[in-house]
Amino acid sequence: MTAVTRRLAMAILNGFDAFFAEYKNITLGAQARFEGADWHGAQKAMRDRLDLWKQKRRIVAEAAYTITGGSVEDRDNWEIAKQEYAELIQNHDNFEIAQSFFNSIYCYIFKHEKIRDVHTFALTSVEHCAPVSSESILRSYRFDGDNAVDITKSMLIDCEFNIPWEDLDRDVGFIMNVVNRELIPKIRDRSKDIYVETLESLFFRNKAAYLVGRIVSGDFNMPFVLPILHSENNSIFVDTVLSDPDDISILFSFSRSYFMVDTSVPSSYISFLHRLMPHKEIFELYIAIGMPKHGKTEFYRFAVNETANSESPYIIAPGIKGMVMLVFTRPDFGYVYKVIKDRFTPPKDMSQEHVRKCYSLVKRWDRGGRMADTQEFNNLAFDRRRFSDELIAELEKEAPSKVSVSGNALLLKHVYIERKMIPLNLYLKDCNEQQLDSVMGEYGNAIKQLAAGNIFPGDMLLKNFGVTRHGRVVFYDYDEICPLTDCNFRSLPEPKNDEQAMASQPWYEVKPEDVFPEEFRLFFSGNQRAKKVFDSLHSDLYDPAYWRGLQETIRNGYVADVFPYRKKQRFQQRPH
Questions:
Q1: Is Cytoplasm tagged as a keyword (predicted)?
Q2: Which residue, 48, 55, 162, 253, is most buried by CB atoms nearer than 10 A?
Q3: Does 319 appear as a known binding residue?
């Protein structure tokens, strides 16, 4: 051990602690923003919080150059510094996130090259001295068979809002209708003590707050979530009860923006949430509560482990090949890898940097449940022997500058990883009439909800949308997205003569920002069955006036409501 490596380790830990303190300060403002209906402030806070990690990483990396006297790129020093750092964080409450911060500094300095576990915590996580406990973050209420109303009222009052409830007794009555109908029958015959437990901190996102809890008795565990909304008369109300596992899973979906939840020890919240949703991977939960950088570390470890336990080859992903991205996967892996092509297939005409900016924009935008989150990696290593010959040929043809092969190692210099979904165009080939009606409704709703969030997808072909296991339609091709307010929605000009009517190319001037909604019908080329259902549900999307009306609403400052549950589940059908 040396004094230099010790100071380097301490500087990184100080940088992490500074990051986490500012992270918490931004998060602590979430309730005040909710109570004040400061929706634009909430969106800005989300973006500011996302920027913190990179800001602190840059500051610490600059300090590292000074501390090491110019020897910061000596990897032997980093091997020692890692050991020093592991000792420093052994009793740190957030040791696992601190490890990810160390990794991030190293990757920044070495430009993501030759990442080895001897220098970083990439594959292995040094364990914490004390086991993670969720008990200190819970409020507990004992159920005696007759006090359900009192418990429900106490849970809501204990949220400690600084604005009044619109009608607390009414909301308790709504909740009790659900409790008596759906929950009491499931716990009535249990002999063990029954408790209701809620996390002490609320989850804030978009224009809602969520109280997360469970009913527990012995090994029985029933999760529930109470969405709380802000009313127009500056009060609050409970909108519904979510207790179905699928509904709660959708609330924490990969297609939604990150929550703001005040927790000094995120791992304790992750431990509780994982008990509620055991099918969710740990990395998914870290990402959901606003720790995407550590979530990326956990995802990498998950992917390495999954790959090691699989013999399945990497293949070109099913579906129509993209004009901008080369997409591949493994049949037994729930994710796809996306590599930007060196040259785009016409008529795509944009730079690779533009594509990267589009993906960065999505990361910072309110995805509203309609855009898939991505993990971005540089210099990601694979076993060349696992790649099909067809995939190798495709990589060498479409993205040779991104691929480096040395022996059995294949290195991708830049890649996005995204949740695997069934491409909508493939889903439509095999779905029945009921599924067709549902998925076409979802497709139109996805477009409308993206637009309400000031996102225009650009290329709305069916192949650019995927269907999740819950039957939701999610957009995943981002190379043409832009703010809706940047578009100019026009009606198609009427031809003035036969020559114009028969022209193979537009006879009128078309600027880059021009959009002609009447042409959206072409997206259903070859699938008239789907078009008929879509037209019956969403024909308003063909009208330029619909889009211009949305633009005016957004420019006037309106922030759309995003319900992570079906509107029919709401206690009251309010105008929003």
A1: yes
A2: 253
A3: yes
Using alpha carbons only, give the angle 185, 188, 193 rounded to the nearest 5 degrees. 140
The reply, when asked if residue 331 is annotated as ligand binding, is no
**How much is the pLDDT for 71?**
85
**pLDDT band at residue 78, thresholds of 50, 70 and 90?**
very high
pTM greater than 0.85 (yes/no): yes
Choice among 239, 373, 477, 479 that is catalytic: 373
pLDDT of 509 above 90: no
373 counts as catalytic: yes
**Burial (CB count within 10 angstroms: exposed 0-12, middle 13-18, buried 19+), residue 560:** buried
Q: Which residue has the tokens 């809501």?
A: 156
Check whether 567 is labelled as a binding-site residue.
no
12 is in an annotated binding site: no
Mean pLDDT, rounded, for 553-568: 92
Is the pLDDT at 34 greater than 60? The verdict is yes
CB count in 10 Å sphere of residue 432? 8
Per-residue pLDDT, 146: 84
Q: Does the annotation place 322 within a ligand binding site?
A: yes
Q: Write down the domain spans for the chain.
A: 3-109, 135-306, 310-420, 424-569
* Identity of the amino acid at 513: E
Contact 542, 487 (CB under 8 A): no
Instruction: Please give the single-letter amino acid code of residue 64.
Output: A
How far from each other are the two terminal CA atoms of the chain, in whole angstroms?
A: 62
**Residue 309, C-beta contacts closer than 8 angstroms, at least 6 positions apart:** none
CB atoms within 10 A of CB 43: 18
Which residues is 236 bridged to in the sheet?
Answer: 165, 230
Closest CA to 477 of 518, 446, 440, 513: 446
How many whole angstroms separate alpha carbon 101 and alpha carbon 539?
49
CATH number of 310-420: 3.30.200
Question: Nearest to residue 225, comparing CAs of 197, 206, 267?
Answer: 197
pLDDT tens-digit map of 458-504: 888 999 999 999 999 999 999 999 999 999 999 999 888 888 778 77
Q: What is the pLDDT of residues 390-427, one digit of tens each?
A: 999 999 999 999 999 989 999 999 999 999 999 999 99
Q: Are 231 and 575 in contact (CB under 8 A)?
A: no
**270 contacts: CB under 8 Å, gap ≥ 6:** 282, 285, 286, 289
